[in-house]
Amino acid sequence: MMNSNGGSLAVSSIRQLKNHISVSIWPCSRSRLTVRCAAVRFRPCIDIHKGKVKQIVGSTLKDSDDGTSSLVTNFESDMFPAEYANMYKEDGLTGGHVIMLGADELSRAAAIEALNAYPGGMQVGGGINSDNALSYIKEGASHVIVTSYVFNDGKMDLERLRHLVCMIGKSKLVLDLSCRKKNGKYAIVTDRWQRFSDVFVDEKTLAFLATYADEFLVHGVDVEGKRLGIDEELVALLGNWSPIPVTYAGGVTTMADLETVKEAGKGRVDVTVGSALDIFGGNLAYRDVVAWHERQAMALH
């Protein structure tokens, strides 16, 4: 078994997988693992930093950020988070995510306002743990999105993962497997994407974690927020191996990029667009993306 410099999982996490990979689902969840057959969807987003809707290059955000150092902000909106949520609701867009880019109370209050504006229509992430997960569900989140709480200190914490599933149910959990390339493999990154974990996104990891989660959210961190185009290799990996719904985010800049996600992901990977959208200061028309989303659904009928 190879180590974290070359294998798909470090030894510590492989041992955990060996002990539990035969379990079809965690006993607290009654959901069954299903392979998705549906249209590609556009998943909208609301990123909140210090109570404001912003588009930030995620890899520049640190927990200790004082707002003046290396933080790169692409856009700051005059609209309230709840206004974006209402817009997505009116356009019939579901499964989007509200992300709190910081642990401050202003961001938490703004996120709750967005969830209240669109009950059951959006997921929420950012600082989610076993102490607060249920409170966000009660405020209207369809799911909670978790990364650092489960991939703690760079390792997969199965005890925490099981506890979360027991508390809220598999059907309410989205695992954020945002990743960066490391020695040719995609390593899950945590703590504002600053820390590499010893868990790699591959067929075995996706199959194992799918027994605990309802969906995956995966940011291609190397291209996220930089308008460099998508990480096509990562999208293809997700399309090939994710047994549950998965949303890719990172680098979408043009309508052609949406089609590339659709093709590379074999029609099985949903997509989020952030800083490229005109509603976030970019050049890609939000209305064009919504129209593209609607065409995907119509193509199934």
Structural write-up:
The protein is an alpha/beta fold. The chain contains nine helices and 15 strands. It has a ten-stranded mixed β-sheet. A three-stranded antiparallel β-sheet has the order 10-11-12, with no helix packed on it. A hairpin with a 2-residue loop joins strand 1 and strand 2. The protein starts with 10 loop residues before the first helix and ends with a helix. Mean pLDDT is 85; it is low at 1-36 and 64-68.
Q: Main attributes?
A:
301 residues, alpha/beta, three-stranded antiparallel sheet, 15 strands, globular
What share of residues are in beta strands? Answer: 15-25%
- How far apart the termini lie comes to 47 Å
Q: Which class of secondary structure composition applies to the elements? A: alpha/beta
Computed Rg: 18 Å
Strand order of the largest sheet: 3-2-1-4-5-6-9-13-14-15
Helix fraction, binned, reads 25-40%
- Low-pLDDT runs of 5+ residues are 1-36, 64-68
SSE succession: HEEEHEHEHEEEHEEEEHEHEHEH
The counted number of beta strands is: 15
What would you call the shape? globular
- Helix count from the secondary structure assignment: 9
Mean pLDDT: 85
Q: Main beta sheet: strand number and arrangement?
A: 10 strands, mixed
GO molecular function: 1-(5-phosphoribosyl)-5-[(5-phosphoribosylamino)methylideneamino]imidazole-4-carboxamide isomerase activity
Keywords: Amino-acid biosynthesis, Chloroplast, Histidine biosynthesis, Isomerase, Plastid, Sodium
Subcellular location: Plastid, Chloroplast
EC number: 5.3.1.16
